[in-house]
Write a structure and sequence with these properties.
The protein contains no helices and 15 strands. The protein has 147 residues and is mostly beta strands. The chain has two domains: 2-55, no CATH class; 61-146, Jelly Rolls (Sandwich). The chain is globular and about 35 Å long.
C-alpha cells in the first residue's frame, strides 16, 4: 500500500500526526510507503490491534465557482498550487468538454462530462481547467475546490 499523508513527522521511527487520522488496515502486517515532506519512508508497520493509524491531511473548501455555459472555451478553475481536490459538476443540459492546462475545443479536450454528472480531480493536478459546450444549452458548471 502507498499513503501520502501530510502533514506528518517521523521521530525515532515512530509515526506522529498533527491532524486527524484514519484507519487503514485490519489486523495484519506489511510494508507501507509513507511520504514525509516529499520523501518516501518505507518501514514495516504491524497491526497489533484492530488497525494501523496513518495521517490524513486537513482539507478545507476554498471556494465554489459557477460558470455559465459557453460555446467558446472558458476557464472553469484557475491554477492553485494549494489545491488538494476539485469536483466539477455539469449542471447543464449538454455535455461539457474539459481540457487541463489550456483552451478546450470540441476536438482537443481531456475528457467529457455528461449532463448532471461530475468528475473529481484528486490526482495532484493544480493547473488551469478549461471547458466548452458542444451546443448552446442552458445551465452551468459548478466547481468545488478543496485546499
Amino acid at each position: 500500500m502507498s499513503f501520502i499523508p501530510p502533514p506528518c513527522s517521523s521521530d525515532s521511527g515512530a509515526l506522529s500526526c498533527e491532524t486527524d487520522s484514519i484507519t487503514v488496515c485490519p489486523p495484519a502486517s506489511g510494508v507501507f510507503d509513507v511520504q514525509f515532506e516529499g520523501e518516501v519512508d518505507v518501514r514495516p508497520l504491524t497491526c497489533d490491534t484492530d488497525s494501523v493509524t496513518v495521517c490524513q491531511p486537513v482539507v478545507n473548501v476554498n471556494d465554489i465557482f459557477v460558470t455559465p455555459v459557453s460555446v467558446t472555451s472558458v476557464q472553469l478553475l484557475a491554477p492553485n498550487p494549494n489545491r488538494v481536490r476539485a469536483i466539477i459538476y455539469n449542471d447543464s443540459t449538454g455535455t461539457v468538454f474539459i481540457r487541463f492546462g489550456s483552451a478546450a475545443s470540441l476536438t482537443n479536450y481531456s475528457l467529457r462530462i455528461l449532463t448532471l454528472t461530475s468528475f473529481t480531480i484528486d490526482f495532484g493536478y493544480v493547473g488551469s481547467v478549461e471547458g466548452i459546450w458542444q451546443n448552446v444549452v442552458s445551465g452551468q458548471v459548478r466547481v468545488t475546490e478543496f485546499v
